[in-house]
Structure formats: structure tokens, C-alpha cells
Amino acid sequence: MKIKNICCIGAGYVGGPTMAIIAQKCPHINVTVVDINEKRIAAWNDEDVNNIPIYEPGLSDIVKEARGRNLFFSTNVDEAIDNAEMIFISVNTPTKTYGIGKGMAADLKYIELCARQIARVSKTDKIVVEKSTLPVRTAEALKNILENTGNGVNFQILSNPEFLAEGTAVEDLLAPDRVLIGGDIDTVKGKDAVEALVNVYANWVSREHILTTNVWSSELSKLTANAFLAQRVSSINAMSELCEKTGADVNEVAKAVGMDSRIGAKFLQSSVGFGGSCFQKDILNLVYIAKSFGLNEVADYWEQVIILNDHQKRRFAANIVKSLFNTVSGKKIAILGWAFKKDTNDTRESAAIYVSDYLLNEQAEIVVYDPKVTAEQIYADLDYLGTRSDSENRSLVSVVSTAEEACKNSHAVAVLTEWDEFKELDWNEIYKNMLKPAFLFDGRRLLDKAELQSIGFDFFVIGN
Ligand code: UDX
Ligand code: UDX
User: What's the gap in Å between 226 CA and the centre of ligand 2?
Assistant: First the structure.
């Protein structure tokens, strides 16, 4: 089957960049990204490409090149489904906040809505691709809905999990370690569908990097990869606490350990805790699946990764309170960085949210600066926790447009995102404008300890 039209449902952090690259690399394919969120689609269509809703280095140039040529953003979901031979589902699958599996299982309601819509609209055969990260065996449920509510057309379901990391989405998409495609490889139609998707990626990814498997292996591989990555961060963060007690330095330990080629150097950066939309959600999902099969030891093993991560965020915040003479009540604390990592405007599950919430419970006043996150988003993140009223959040938290302004007259500064620009700040000047003793807490191992101590800061860094 030759693919001429692709539709992607969900214009988020995954759907948007992935489709932009497909459009750029496959000028012979029309790619339409649809979303029910009108504001988001309008932003993707904004004349000024700098206003697209997702900040990713290099993305706006690619959108500029392909948009209007063979890349389209629309809210007309039915039309895009109808026109496409291949439909990617890239809608969000948040952790359930109600009912069975609350706080653990993935909420699949949007996935099911998409499947029902595809079934209703489709008048020709379709290949449906799971791009969202989903619990293993979701493809079976999709197939069931499509076949039982469809118009008698043939649906092939593929799993094609996305491994891009935010902040490096463009480079990850252009040169992926691997592209994973799971399909019904025991049937001719299934194999053809897999081949059709392989051919899309083969426009820029070499065949050796395109891996084909059965659907269940593909679905589970994505959860496994995220669990392993998160586990490495929790492992090094566990060591960071031990380093602080023993006089070892976690960066030195990480370097020594990472030089063992069996372990490898990546993902050993100790931090205030991992965030992002995937790690926590996917591990909770894995824990839930394991429990539902009665595999309690497996579930407990993976749950510990989350427990340690929560502990890391909490102990960082608790250390601020302890260092500031056991009270931050009425004290101004500057938070530098709100995004869950640098080079993204995404704040989902960011450590900054939880550290700030802890400090606000201790009656601190918070002043936030992040180069890419809006004030609206910061308030929305705090309001979502429901710890205090929306108006209290607005009276206790202010958002400013420079790091210097955030730090001015503060008792303490906490660096929570590793934005490059924080390294370049004039820390001498910042020190002068702070209350004394001036405390600086580096949750990202970003700053030079000796230099900042020589300026006069009471400096605390994770893992040293
Ligand atoms: C999402 C999931 O969070 C992740 O598990 C999965 O791996 C890929 O998809 P992301 O792109 O980061 O990741 O999510 P988000 O930025 O929230 O985008 C999802 C989009 O889907 C939103 O813009 C939302 O409006 C849209 N959507 C949701 C629909 O268009 N239709 C729906 O029924 C539900
Ligand atoms: C992750 C996976 O890397 C990606 O393959 C998958 O598709 C989605 O989930 P993402 O969440 O975008 O990507 O970013 P990632 O770079 O993995 O970072 C996740 C969190 O871990 C961030 O908060 C980051 O700061 C933190 N982290 C990462 C560390 O604290 N230390 C590290 O060594 C690496």
C-alpha cells in the first residue's frame, strides 16, 4: 500500500514534531495534524512560526518549510480521517484520576473516542498507528472497537511508539537510535501495513535502524525503555543522598561508574528529580499492569523508582527550609526554572511544581523566572494540585521576566531547571542584591561551587 495521505490525531508534544519531520522528509505525502483544541491548532497555524505552541530547538524552521506545502493543521478531524490511508493516534493518556486504577492506570478514554470516530468516518481501508504510549494489549481493544463499529472496511493496527525526548525532539526524530514498528506480522495484510510504515520512515532512516516486532512487544518495549531510563535517574539520585552524608561527590561517582561500557555514561545526571509527562505515568501504568496479573514483586520493584523520585523532590525542599534556620515563612525564595528540563516549555510533572508547593505550605513567598514558561502555565500547575485556593497561589507566587528580578531581595535562590543561561548570570551582582546570608540551592549540578562560595553564597548542591 502506498501512503499518500497521513492524518495524526493530537497536535501535542509528540504529534506536532513527529508529523513536522515526516512532512519535511516525505514531500510526496500530505500530512494533516488534527486536534480538538482550537487554540492549539490556531497557534500551529500562526503566521509567525515563532508562535507555534511547542518550543523545540529547530522545530519552527521545519514547520516554516513544510507548512502549507504538505503539512497542515486543522480541527476538521472527520475530513482528515476520511482522506488518509494511515492515521496516527497521538492523543494524551493521562493517569486516571477516578474509579478503578485511580492514580495508576492510564486513562484510555481519548484513545477509545478516537477509535470510535475513525470507525464511524472511515469508508476505505485504514492503517491505524498507535503513537501514544499505551498499556500493553491496547491494540487489541482498538481492533475490537474498530471492527465492531466500523463500516466493514479493513483496519490494520500498528504500534509505533515515539522515543523522542523533549528539548531534543528534532535531532531525535532526524536520527533516531531506532524506529520500532509492531504489527500483525503473521498475516499478509499485517505485514503489508508494517511495510507501508517502514517505507515512510525509510525516507530518512536507514533500514538497520527500523525494527519490526509483534504488536505486544512493541507496546511493552516503550514502557520498558521509559522505566529503565527513569530507574537510572532514581538510582543516581539515591546515591546523591548517600554522597551528601559520606563526602563523596555524585558527579565523580557517576563518571567513574559510567566509564564502565557495560553501564554507560548517559542518564546518570543527579537532579532534584525527574519530571515530564512520561516517566511517572508510564511506570505507574507498568505497576498497575503487573499488579493486575498478580505480579506484586514486579510491581513493587518498579514503584520504588517513583517513591525515590518523590523523596528526592521533598528532601530538596526540606533542606531549603532547614538551611534557612528552620523557617521560610514570609521569606522570599526565587525559583529559577519551571520547565521539567531545559529547552522545552513543557512543565508536566516538573520538580519545580512540587518543590514550590512544599515551600508554599511553609508559607514562603515564591518568585519564579523561566525563559520559556508563561505565568498562566505556572499558576495553572499550582492550581491543579489543589493544595490552596487559586487566589492564594496568585498572592503568594509572582512570575517575573528576568532571573535578576526574581533574585532581588530574596533570602534564597533555587535552580530547578538546567537552562544554559543560568550559568551565564552575573552571580556577583545577584549576590549583592540578595538578603544575607544569601542561600543558593542548585538542584541541577549546574553551577560552579567554588566560584559561588567565593562570592559569598551559602551554596548547596545535590549530591555533594
Ligand atoms: C501524548 C501522551 O501524553 C503520551 O502518552 C503519548 O506517548 C503521546 O501523546 P503529548 O503529545 O506530549 O503526548 O500530549 P499532549 O501535548 O497533551 O497532546 C495531546 C493532544 O491531543 C492535545 O493537544 C489534545 O487536545 C489532543 N486530543 C486529545 C485530541 O485531539 N482529541 C482527543 O480526543 C483528546
Ligand atoms: C523521556 C524519554 O527519554 C523518551 O525516550 C520518551 O519518548 C519520553 O520520555 P522526556 O521526558 O522528554 O523523554 O525527557 P528526558 O530527557 O528523558 O528527561 C526526563 C526527566 O529526567 C527530566 O526531568 C530530566 O531533567 C530528568 N533527567 C534525565 C535527570 O534528572 N537526569 C538524567 O541523567 C536524565
Answer: 9
